[in-house]
């Protein structure tokens, strides 16, 4: 009976030890699962933070590149405006020179035409004066007639002179 009690006691002790071992194994497994869960959570948090850092860095880089691009674009726009202004200035200068040349040619031809008109007027007046002189010489015999003729010729000379002066002024 003592033996049975002892065997029973040893069996209970073994059962108890087994249960303790099982509990210990279960606790270790639970501890391992918790560690794995914590490690996964840490790993996920690390990856999320790492991605966030990378995204911030990428956003910062993109912002810098966008700013550089906008500054470069601004410089190109400024250069383009300057080139357009320079081209317009050159075009205006060319047009002004061209207009000056045209006006110079017009003035030259006007002056030539005026000179030609003056020469023609002078030669016509000289012809008329010669004709008048011839008439005066031919009509020298009659004083009265001659006085009238002289008066008429003077009037014509005055008129021609007036026309010459008037056209010369214009």
Automatic annotation (TrEMBL):
Give UniProt keywords alphabetically. Answer: Coiled coil
Report what the protein is called: Serine/threonine protein kinase
For whether the record's keyword set contains Coiled coil, the answer is yes
Q: Which domain of life is it from?
A: Eukaryota
Q: Which residues form a coiled coil?
A: 75-138
């Amino acid at each position: 009976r003592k033996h049975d009690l002892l065997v029973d006691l040893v069996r209970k002790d073994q059962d108890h030890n087994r249960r303790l071992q099982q509990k210990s194994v279960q606790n270790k497994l639970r501890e391992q699962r918790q560690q794995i869960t914590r490690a996964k959570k840490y790993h996920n948090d690390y990856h999320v933070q790492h991605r966030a850092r990378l995204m911030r860095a990428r956003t910062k880089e993109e912002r810098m590149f966008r700013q550089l691009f906008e500054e470069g674009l601004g410089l190109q726009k400024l250069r383009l405006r300057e080139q357009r202004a320079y081209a317009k200035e050159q075009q205006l200068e060319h047009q002004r020179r061209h207009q000056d040349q045209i006006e110079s040619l017009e003035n030259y031809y006007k002056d030539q035409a005026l000179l030609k008109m003056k020469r023609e007027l002078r030669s016509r007046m000289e012809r008329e004066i010669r004709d008048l002189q011839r008439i005066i010489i031919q009509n020298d015999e009659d004083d009265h007639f001659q006085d009238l003729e002289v008066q008429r010729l003077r009037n014509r000379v005055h008129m021609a002179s007036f026309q010459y002066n008037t056209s010369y002024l214009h």
